[in-house]
Design goal:
Chain lengths: 192, 192
């Protein structure tokens, strides 16, 4: 998505360790008009008429997922990070490793809000190692729901998460795939 | 807002301690079409033409704030919960007490994304003791921005947070004010 790539180049910051900050329009301050155009891009790639639930992860995926779900006329649900070891019943759970916080995190989702009847599109703002999305896929599987696809705004292609999902044959689309990011600049992968 | 009250009565659950669960449409699974109609209700109360930034708190306020900001054609920004004691510079900070987690939480917001030029509407899904919103007001004050108003979806009127804001003369609107919630049912406050 050309507009997204241009915003990343213009407004993104590359920090040491190839950390890419796009918190001016994606995941702190959020440009909701851009979110809407990203929803349109996803709708050009996935068959949204088959989707009845948008699934994302707390917290930074929520804004994009909410605008997508609003535009597509369907509900969204977000997996929460478990706050304690005492997790109540009635929940799907997945264990993921958070590279941001350098610890294991448990994602939880109430069984009431996703079932085997759902046809789910996972939407998230960022994909690096892909742990959050791996956990979301597990939740979909636990529910027995159908996974229609996975739509990501920005993929850090050099961290392998997206390629693992592609290799699994999943219906996966990232709107901008960053191949390299350092002090010399940002290089995007050619469109697949 | 009649529709919201009906959804609370029909789908909400009252747990011991007057805890009200509305996680089927507001803050776990999210009915984004309802969020849109709530945005319209806020737009009927506040002068949105004066607002250039929607401010909310991570995580459960984000979906409502994102749909509001999308419909009003302005950006939104969310205060994050600080994850460690080592908070980097360039941030506004407010200390609040979380009754949910029974501990102090630091809300942070990058100084880049709210300044003295902004005219801010605070939007949140829930108001109980009002600590989160009190912290958000502090962030607005630190920025030197203008606070246009505070819009809340569901207020637990019996916990006093909303009344404190009213007493301060702030431009405050909650779309449903719950006066009482126990095993006998849910009672709403009459419209002001």
């Amino acid at each position: 998505m050309q507009e997204l790539k241009e915003r990343i180049v213009k407004e993104g910051k590359v920090l040491p360790g190839s950390i890419i900050k796009v918190d001016g329009f994606l995941n702190h301050r959020v440009d909701c008009a851009l979110m809407s155009r990203m929803a349109d891009e996803f709708a050009g790639y996935f068959d949204i008429s088959k989707v009845d639930l948008v699934l994302t992860a707390e917290a930074s995926g929520i804004a994009l997922a909410a605008v997508c779900a609003y535009k597509w006329g369907i509900p969204m649900v977000y997996a929460k990070k478990a706050k304690s070891d005492n997790i109540e019943g009635g929940l799907y759970q997945s264990e993921i490793y958070s590279y941001t916080y350098k610890k294991k995190v448990t994602q939880i989702l109430s069984k009431e809000w996703m079932t085997e009847k759902n046809h789910v599109l996972i939407v998230d703002d960022f994909m690096a190692n892909g742990e959050a999305v791996r956990g979301l896929c597990e939740l979909v599987q636990q529910a027995g729901a159908e996974l229609i696809g996975i739509g990501i705004a920005v993929e850090k292609g050099f961290q392998g998460g997206g390629d693992r999902l592609r290799a699994m044959g999943l219906n996966y689309k990232a709107l901008a795939v960053i191949e390299k990011a350092d002090e010399t600049g940002i290089v995007f992968r050619e469109e697949d």
